[in-house]
Amino acid sequence: MTAAPLRHMIRLDRKPQLFSMRVAALIFQNGHLLVQRGAKDSYWALPGGRAEIGESSEETILREIGEELDRDCSVERLLWSAENFFAYDGYAAHELAFYYLVSLRQALPFHESDIVHRVLDGVEVEFRWLRAQSSTLLEQDLRPRFIADRIEALPPRHEHLIVREGGTAPDALTKETL
Predict the structure, then answer these.
(1) What is the pLDDT of residue 1?
(2) CA 133/CA 112 separation, integer angstroms
(3) Which of 16, 63, 76, 117 has its CA 20 to 30 A from that of 46?
(4) DSSP labels, 138-155
(5) What is d(CA 79, CA 19) in angstroms, rounded to the nearest whole number?
(6) What is the mean pLDDT of residues 74-88?
(7) pTM of this prediction?
(8) pLDDT tens digits, residue range 103-149?
(9) How far apart are CA 90 and CA 87, in angstroms?
């Protein structure tokens, strides 16, 4: 019997610098977008997680949705790849991220204002649906912010973005359509 291979998330912690590779899903239902947050956090993010060494970004999102939502899903297409630069918990963070449009094969429960799913992933993570409108996502502090700015007009083709959030200068964004 062979042991399962070791799993290594792509995360380099060199405080005060942090690098990670994250993959996230945009999942829609009834005009709403599925979001997640740590139960003690004040901001929301898209469902997903860190890639593992040797795993493609598509494999990552399929695995993460299975682990966190207990659902099979299908990847429709890659919307954005982004180089995100932001401050996080005392770090100057640099994140390489991939954002996929994803469909669940079995829908999650739907409610317009309540938590619809919880999972324990080191910390308690809660999931809810937010109206897929820029104003709602900005009001609820969805991060990274560029998603709220683009939610009402998803790109027809993959876009590569360089996003710098926070600091004293206005948020900077560079876009390249591939």
Answers:
(1) 64
(2) 13
(3) 16
(4) HHTTBSSHHHHHHTTS--
(5) 22
(6) 97
(7) 0.91
(8) 999 999 999 999 999 999 789 999 999 999 999 999 999 999 999 99
(9) 7
Contact (Cβ atoms closer than 8 angstroms) between residue 110 and residue 30:
yes
Cβ-Cβ contacts under 8 Å for 108 (sequence gap 6 or more): 29, 34, 69, 71, 116, 117, 127
Q: Say how many residues make up the chain.
A: 178
How far the first Cα of the chain sits from its last, in Å, is: 45
Q: What is the DSSP letter of 176?
A: E
Tell me the C-alpha distance between 14 and 1, whole Å: 37
Q: Cα–Cα distance between 59 and 132 in angstroms, integer?
A: 26
Report residue 163 as tokens.
């996003």
What lies within 8 Å, CB to CB, of 1 at 6+ separation is none
* Position 46, amino acid: L
